Amino acid sequence: MVRLAISKGRILEEAVQMLSSINIHCKVNPLNSRKLIIPTDYEDLEIIVIKATDVPLYIDSGKIDLGIVGMDTLMEDERNNHFILHDMSISKCKLVVAGDSKSKYFNNMKVATKYPNLTKKYFEKIGIQCSILKLYGSIELAPVLGLSDFIVDILETGKTLKENGLKVHDTVADISSLLIANKISYKLKRNKIDLILDKIKKNKKNEK
């Protein structure tokens, strides 16, 4: 059995649609079911629905063989017991630095984010010292209420930033979702995994 973990949310929606396009169908709709282990009609494949930040841990442990997860999650987590097999080209977005339109970077500024490791590396790279505040939601609220000077967060449409009077100052990284495999799983189950991977790659070529 090959187990494929997919991040909840937008990635799950787009991944399920993509799998359907290559004739891999879930027997239970993961978008409106509370089941976390979803059987499919593809031989020896089941879908595991988990929170994005947990995907690297499950893959690293070997309890799950494959994962579809955002590049931002992998960059933040920094685990390395996996191979990156394919860029799925779904759930594309940007990781950006945002703040008040008149704000400028300065040493010892405060930055709120869900990505403390990525944020630290980025500002070290450009030579700015900062204090990082880890938040778990409503990141845009932090500079509006004066909790932070800037934020580092995912940008999809930019609507939330605009409605809260914020603007993008820099792009930290372009983000998409990746198909990853546990290193040992890929060696032991390579034939089964490559069959799935080949179907995904052929579908992408046909879309061009």
Order of helices and strands: EHEEHEHEEEHEHEHEEHH
> Which runs of at least 5 residues are low in confidence (pLDDT < 50)?
none
DSSP summary, beta strand count:
11
Give a short account of the largest sheet.
Answer: 6 strands, mixed
Task: Quote the distance from N terminus to C terminus.
Answer: 31 Å
Number of helices: 8
Which percent band covers the strand fraction? 25-35%
Q: Looking across the biggest beta sheet, what order are the strands in? A: 2-3-1-4-11-5
Instruction: Tell me the overall shape.
Output: elongated
Let me know the average pLDDT.
94
The secondary-structure class comes to alpha/beta
Specify the helix fraction band: 25-40%
Architecture blueprint of SSEs:
Elements: E1 2-7, H1 10-21, E2 37-39, E3 45-50, H2 55-61, E4 66-70, H3 71-77, E5 82-87, E6 93-100, E7 109-113, H4 116-125, E8 130-134, H5 141-144, E9 150-155, H6 159-163, E10 166-175, E11 177-182, H7 183-188, H8 190-207
Parallel strand pairs: 1-3, 1-4, 7-8, 7-9
Antiparallel strand pairs: 2-3, 4-11, 5-11, 6-9, 6-10
List keywords for this structure.
single chain; 208 residues; alpha/beta; six-stranded mixed beta sheet; five-stranded mixed beta sheet; 8 helices; 11 strands
